[in-house]
Amino acid sequence: MSPRSAQANQRLHEEQKERILAAALPVFVQKGLAATRMTDIATAAKMGYGSVYHYFPDKEAIFTALIQREMEASAQHIREVLEMPGTPWERLEWWLSRAMIWVYKHPEVILFMTQVLINEPAHEQLRSLVYQLSRTSHQELRRLIVEGQEAGQVATGNPDQLVIAIQSCLQGFAIEAAFRQDHAREQFPDAQILLRLLRP
């Protein structure tokens, strides 16, 4: 096989895996892991039942891949924040702006993560992955808040409490975006709403 053919095959392989993951996410959100079958995912992806098994051995592997994908995206987000120039407040504003846009576009991801923590007690490994992702996000935002407090740009107070307040708002916005899809983009809260909680 030529290098070009190998690259094309690898690209197709990744595209098909992404197709399965994209189709599986809303199925998991709707049914939960326990009630979801591989046939449900195959139907949602418009692929043959056997084709899905070619890429993933079981639904747990798909579930895990979805969580790991979000962990990788979060790690990339952290790198971008750390490399970004500007004041602590400017980095915090950028972080929250990105977070709000992401929540509006992908509310099902937060619902998916919440469902893992609440409804999947039997899958401790998956819950552990979600906890890890949540801790990473918490630590990232906490660092920005502490830097802002040290610079006098963020309100004083317990940084962990401020992080939990912001994250709770984001979760609430995700629920609103998921179940009130008639909202126009301009009606959805922007980062300035959350930044008011942090102004000194």
UniProtKB/TrEMBL annotation:
GO MF annotation: an example: DNA-binding transcription factor activity
InterPro entries with a match to the protein in the record: Homeodomain-like_sf, HTH-type_TetR-like_transc_reg, HTH_TetR, Tet_transcr_reg_TetR-rel_C_sf
Domain of life, source organism: Bacteria
Coiled coil: none
Classification via SUPFAM superfamilies: Homeodomain-like, Tetracyclin repressor-like, C-terminal domain
Residues in HTH tetR-type domain copies: 14-74
Gene3D superfamilies per UniProt: Homeodomain-like, Tetracycline Repressor, domain 2
One Pfam family named in its UniProt record: TetR_N
Keyword Plastid assigned: no
Known DNA-binding region: 37-56
Name assigned to this protein: TetR/AcrR family transcriptional regulator
Species this chain originates from: Ktedonosporobacter rubrisoli
